[in-house]
Amino acid sequence: MRILLTNDDGIDAPGINVLGRHLAEAGHEITYCAxxxxxxxxxxxxxxxxxxxxxxxxxxxxxxxxxxxDSVLIAYHLFGIEAFDLVISGINQGQxxxxxxxxxxxxxxAIEASFVxxxxxxxxxxxxxxxxxxxxxxxxxxxxxxxxxDQIRPEEVLNINVPNVEIDAIKGVKITHPxxxxxxxxxxxxxxxxxxxxxxxxxxxxxxxxxxxxxxxxQENYISISxxxxxxxxxxxxxxxxxxxxxxx
Length: 249
Hints:
By secondary structure, this protein is of the alpha/beta class. It has one domain (2-181, 208-248): Stationary-phase Survival Protein Sure Homolog, Chain: A, CATH 3.40.1210. Helix content is 25%, strand content 29%. Helix 2 packs parallel to helix 3 (105-115). The longest helix is centred in the middle third of the chain and has 13 residues, at 133-145.
């Protein structure tokens, strides 16, 4: 397949380059277009009020001085819809599960790719240290060989999370949905000189219990595949508000 690789960790991040090597060894044709620098937690932000500079490193490797979504849009502008059979965003350093999907630049890049018409996958490893990118890359190659990309439909993105273990420790793959989480000690207050205060946003994550969620199967060393797509309509609440409106209008 002709695959476009992007991410939110930057063009020089190990995840995207390990994945590119594995995919190329599996016979895929790889093009890179990713942010020039680290853009984690950029979510679906886009550069609207400044130009975005493109860097061409070689014939199939580009970076942009912008966001993950900028990278996808510029690749789409450069190459068009027919150039790629699949867009893969990752491999991300750290999980993208539950509500953290909303913050993720990795997932946002895959969703943007879907918006413009590409089939797309986001892939992450559930650790920030001693990350086993080779496990995720090798297993993703297996899934693609088995025809995973052919299953992706319009308005559908696959969000894949891989346990940070050796490949022999992976028990298998489960189809999941995003779970739920909350953070404890989310904001840490630090006293700075001159009576100023600094605040560090980072806490201890607590996953809600849900055996079919991405957050659960990962803990049992299964790979999680969640089909996702943005839908901000709370359909089940429509009638309740319609009834309220009739009574009060």
